[in-house]
Design goal:
single chain, 128 residues, mainly beta, globular
Length: 128
């Protein structure tokens, strides 16, 4: 395919959000299905997490490769363990009601945009 050509890789998403390029694949949160999925260059998809939440808002990774998922309506940051299970990485309910986007900074501190606006930062142990 020539540079600049566009093609559709995935259809039938139910509000695909938070696209990230990671480990040679496109990752995204599919809000309507409560899933995080990957898309390879040929368009094949794979569900990598089913999130027991109203909406898996956005994703990023810790330096060790573990996936982080913002469970925004529940004010939680979830972490995927090696066995695929999701555990609470941080409970954010003390600092707000709903959270959305996340970025893991170069010091490996995940920071929600809403938390940052409140000068709140997240670590492995707690939010403050």
């Amino acid at each position: 395919m020539a540079m600049g050509m566009q093609r559709t890789l995935v259809t039938d998403l139910e509000i695909g959000e938070s696209p990230r390029w990671h480990d040679g694949r496109l990752w995204l949160a599919n809000w309507g299905t409560q899933e995080v999925l990957t898309v390879s260059a040929d368009g094949s998809t794979r569900v990598v997490a089913r999130v027991p939440t109203s909406i898996p808002y956005s994703i990023d990774w810790l330096p060790d490769g573990r996936l982080l998922v913002v469970s925004g309506q529940e004010a939680k940051l979830l972490r995927q363990e090696g066995d695929g299970s999701l555990v609470t990485h941080a409970d954010l309910s003390d600092i707000g009601d709903v959270f959305n986007e996340i970025v893991v900074d170069r010091h490996a501190e995940p920071t929600s945009t809403e938390a940052a606006s409140r000068s709140s930062y997240l670590t492995d142990r707690h939010a403050w």
